[in-house]
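Late entry, written up from scratch paper. The run itself happened at the end of the previous shift, but nothing got recorded in the book at the time, so transcribing now.
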Amino acid sequence: MLKTITSSSAALEVAGFLLANYGRLVRATNRMLHAPADGFYDPFDQNRGVIVALWHGEHFLAPLLGRKGDRLTPLVSYHRDGEILARAGRHFGVTYLRGSGDNGKEFHRKKALQAFTGMLRELKSGGSVIVTADVPKISRVAGLGIVTLAKHAQCPILPVAMATSRFIRLSFGRMAFARGTEIRVTRDADATALEQARRQVEDALNAATERAYALARTGA
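Output as recorded:
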């Protein structure tokens, strides 16, 4: 019964509203820092579309990443948590794509093909997408899905990490965004090249994460 109540449309709407307001609080009480400090958004301006790669757990901060007017579309699952994120995003004017990746028997249930084609369509029309790079159920291990998307879309992957200096106390602090350099996958990339690109994404995300947390802690 409790599960039914918490999964109701009204409960999800309230949860989305609360999450959106928490995001506003984070933005209002944190000084935004970027690494690199100059040109952080250059890849967004210089490319027709980019694939923003995040580690799982950072995607709830996705609405805070873009600038006003940026066309950024995050991908979230059909799970209850994904529904809350999607509803929270509406308060920021962010539209979410729904679905998640899976290489096994969950592929069709999670509507991975639908998600893939939706992201491809968005990228080819000039928008950018935000994707968690982790293999489903395995934290901080990049999967082949994101590099396969880059191969077919011919858009660069941009590794990005986000961190805050205040984790529990609601006081003024710093919120840091760090990015790596663009990672490109050629149209004719074979299995070996895709694996190399996957490892490159994983290493770049780990490096960006270390930089973001250091920036959030020290401000420099």
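Residues 5 and 11 are 7 Å apart (CA to CA).
(Scratch paper discarded after transcription.)
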